[in-house]
Every structure is written in C-alpha cells, then in structure tokens.
Amino acid sequence: MTSFVPGTKLVINVNFSAWHKTCHKMKKLEETLEGFLDYLSIERGLAQNTIISYRYDLTKYISFLKKKKIISFNQTNKVLVNNYFVFLRGKGLEINSISRNLVAVKMFYRFLLMEGLIKEDITILIEFPRVSKKLPHVLSLREINLLLYKANFKGKLGLRDQAVLELFYATGLRG
C-alpha cells in the first residue's frame, strides 16, 4: 500500500481500457439488447420488421432470464437456454415460432461473443427443432375440370392463361 505525503503530487495509475471492459461487461441485459439491435440495423442493414421481431423474441428471453435472477449473460449456460425453449414449447408455441426465437437467441449470443461480453457461445450446439413440411393440397379431377371450365381462354391473355394452367396441371407445379 502506498502512502500519500502532503505537498507531493498524487499519481494514480488507472488502466482505463480494463475499466471500460469491466463496465462494458456489467451492462444491463436491456442495454446489451439495444446494442445488438443497433448492430443489426446499422452494421448488418436488416429490415425494420426483422429488428422488431428480434426485439420481441429477445425481450421475452430476457424476461425469462430475469425471472431466473440472471443479471448478466455470463451467468447463462446451455441448460438455461434449453430450459427457455422447453418453456416456449410449454406455452404452446408452434415449432416455426420456436425456431424463429432460436435464430434470434443464437445471433444474439454470437454478438455477445464478438463484443467480448461472454467467453463462449453456449448456443452453438443447440439444434433447431425439426419443422414438418406440409404436403400441398392436390386438386381433384372435378376441381381441375371446374377451373378449366371457368377460365376465359379467349384472346392473347386467354391463350397465355390456358398455357400456364396446362403447364401447372401437367407438371405438378404450384402457383
């Protein structure tokens, strides 16, 4: 410990870089979210609607963390993140909505790692839920005949429309 002698200059050696990093890491969860949203808008150039979706999804995630008494992203772990997605499933969210939330959380953790706010990306091994693809509705023969009967095939536009409908029918394309 150094002692101060009256009449002399007191020199305090402060490492402001380390202090700034410590303060940066102590940011509130919401402040970190705002920084992420700014990053998405300014540096990534994402659309405003995308940013609104990220805000909505990540605000729910932060609310979940706060209920668990988490005040820093350094306190999170893979089990906690998995528990969040179990919580979402329990609330009845569709698989597509859960996947969208997972995309937001994964991107957020990549941002936290990039900014040095966490030491590792705990979401890297979390897999997306399997999304079942719905089979297309197939028209019955009656529906196809009705479609062709009601269509107006007169003139140039009519010939075009007939060609398009026949192409769809013959190849199984969807419009």
Automatic annotation (TrEMBL):
Database matches in InterPro entries: CB, Integrase_catalytic, Integrase_recombinase_N, Integrase_SAM-like_N
UniProt cross-references to SUPFAM superfamilies, sorted A to Z: lambda integrase-like, N-terminal domain
Name of the protein described by the UniProt record: Core-binding (CB) domain-containing protein
Domain Core-binding (CB) stretches: 27-113
Organism name: marine sediment metagenome
Gene3D superfamilies hit by this protein: 1.10.150.130
One BP term from GO: DNA integration
GO MF annotations, alphabetized: DNA binding
UniProt KW keywords: DNA integration, DNA-binding
Residues annotated as domain Tyr recombinase: 134-175
